[in-house]
């Protein structure tokens, strides 16, 4: 007999799911022995910060989709939908390397830890590894495994990568074996971005299911799920002490900071002035500043403690798609085909 | 995987997430503020540069002998 009505067991499980979520909410409330605003309101403000474009990296002939700082912060790799990866010497403002991809639709790029290789991925669903010590990246190693586009890549060590995908999963790859060795399942929609903790023990993911998740790489499971954003979460970056917190950006126009040890949102960076989605986010190296790109072609600089906008980065002529911070500068990439390097003051 | 099996997995995952040990917000915020304070001098986005010479991106003016 066909029966589309949920059976008793299904109803019981739905109720259990509801109860578990309530249990998490209660536990988070119990850890909230203080209010973030109250704890931070007496701290001295930073004042207005003036960010200036110092270098303009021209070369891509189409939208930039991703960028990654090199290990010494003097190089940057950018990916554009002209199907190219460029490795830039950011001081000389020159290309050190160019890789011509087999697909134009690249969405993600990452340096390997020693910077001798770059990984790329996109709408081709393939994780490609290019050798920068060979001309034009050499013949790429192309690894299949995802059933959807690759949105984000990071090397956890010389022979492993984590990726996030439009197939709703994140994956840990063994590059020598040439395949996925663990799938991180749980998101209910595309996983748009990931950030890797500096010690590679965990990573955070941002999804169109409106949540962020924290994944343990040693025990290979999801440690926590963070609810709060009202629309797709599309950017994520760790607080520099990676066991403390991470920040996310969302189509809902806000950026939020999630405390890992208290297991809850602490800061909500948004205001009525911003009437569009935020596309990408980066935390400065002391953790005090959060810089985020928006659909309205601007980046805004936030004081994470006082939850105030204290600077604006004007310069791009189209949507900001990617951003990355290091000690002395910030790099942005946009749909105006350009990447800029900014310093403050 | 059947819907029931999927939901059982979700329940187990949520149960595990619920059981984590949480640190009080007051301690977490205190630690974050301390970290920011210890690192603010090195963070040139917050503190700027001591002098223009310290900014490796600063455009160099002047003339050079050809």
Automatic annotation (TrEMBL), chain A:
InterPro entries: G-protein_beta_1-5 (IPR016346), WD40/YVTN_repeat-like_dom_sf (IPR015943), WD40_G-protein_beta-like (IPR001632), WD40_PAC1 (IPR020472), WD40_repeat_CS (IPR019775), WD40_repeat_dom_sf (IPR036322), WD40_rpt (IPR001680). GO terms for biological process: signal transduction. This is WD_REPEATS_REGION domain-containing protein. CDD domains: WD40 (cd00200). WD repeats lie at residues 57-90, 143-183, 184-225, 226-268. Belongs to the WD repeat G protein beta family. SMART domains: WD40 (SM00320). Keywords: Repeat, Transducer, WD repeat. The keyword Isomerase does not apply. PANTHER family: GUANINE NUCLEOTIDE-BINDING PROTEIN BETA G PROTEIN BETA.
From TrEMBL, chain B:
Belongs to the G protein gamma family. Keywords: Cell membrane, Lipoprotein, Membrane, Methylation, Prenylation, Transducer. Residues 1-66 form the G protein gamma domain. PROSITE patterns: G_PROTEIN_GAMMA (PS50058). The keyword S-adenosyl-L-methionine does not apply. GO terms for biological process: G protein-coupled receptor signaling pathway. It comes from Macrostomum lignano. This is G protein gamma domain-containing protein. GO terms for molecular function: G-protein beta-subunit binding. Pfam families: G-gamma (PF00631). InterPro entries: G-protein_gamma, G-protein_gamma-like_dom, GGL_sf. GO terms for cellular component: heterotrimeric G-protein complex. PANTHER family: GUANINE NUCLEOTIDE-BINDING PROTEIN GAMMA SUBUNIT. It is a lipid-anchor. Coiled coil: none annotated. It is found in: Cell membrane.
């Amino acid at each position: 007999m066909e029966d589309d009505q949920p059976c008793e067991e299904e109803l019981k499980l739905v109720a259990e799911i509801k109860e578990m979520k309530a249990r998490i909410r209660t536990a988070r409330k119990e850890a909230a022995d203080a209010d973030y605003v109250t704890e931070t309101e007496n701290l001295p403000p930073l004042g207005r910060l003036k960010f200036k474009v110092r270098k303009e990296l021209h070369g891509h002939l189409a939208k930039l989709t991703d960028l990654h700082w090199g290990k010494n912060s003097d190089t940057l790799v950018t990916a554009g939908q002209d199907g190219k990866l460029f490795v830039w010497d950011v001081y000389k403002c020159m290309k050190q390397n160019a890789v011509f991809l087999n697909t134009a639709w690249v969405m993600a790029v990452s340096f390997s830890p020693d910077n001798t290789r770059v990984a790329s991925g996109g709408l081709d669903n393939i994780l490609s590894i290019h050798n920068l010590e060979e001309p034009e990246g050499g013949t790429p190693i192309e690894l299949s495994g995802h059933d959807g586009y690759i949105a984000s890549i990071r090397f956890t060590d010389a022979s492993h990568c984590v990726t996030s995908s439009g197939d709703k999963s994140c994956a840990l790859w063994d590059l020598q074996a040439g395949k996925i060795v663990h799938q991180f399942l749980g998101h209910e929609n595309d996983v748009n971005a990931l950030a890797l903790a500096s010690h590679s023990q965990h990573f955070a993911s941002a999804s169109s299911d409106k949540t962020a998740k924290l994944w343990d790489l040693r025990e290979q499971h999801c440690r926590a799920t963070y609810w709060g954003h009202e629309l797709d979460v599309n950017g994520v970056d760790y607080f520099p002490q990676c066991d403390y917190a991470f920040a996310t950006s969302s189509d809902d126009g806000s950026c939020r900071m999630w405390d890992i040890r208290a297991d809850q949102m602490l800061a909500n960076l948004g205001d009525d002035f911003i009437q569009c989605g935020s596309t990408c986010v980066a935390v400065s190296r002391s953790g005090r500043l959060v810089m985020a790109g928006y659909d309205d072609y601007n980046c805004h600089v936030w004081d994470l403690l006082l939850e105030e906008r204290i600077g604006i980065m004007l310069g791009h002529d189209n949507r900001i798609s990617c951003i990355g911070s290091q000690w002395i500068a910030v790099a942005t990439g946009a749909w105006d085909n350009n990447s800029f390097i900014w310093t403050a003051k | 995987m059947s819907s029931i099996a999927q939901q059982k997995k979700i329940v187990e995952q949520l149960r595990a997430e619920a059981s984590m040990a949480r640190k009080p917000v007051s301690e977490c915020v205190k630690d974050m503020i301390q970290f920011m304070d210890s690192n603010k001098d090195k963070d040139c986005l917050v503190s700027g540069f001591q002098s223009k010479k310290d900014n490796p991106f600063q455009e160099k003016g002047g003339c050079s002998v050809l």
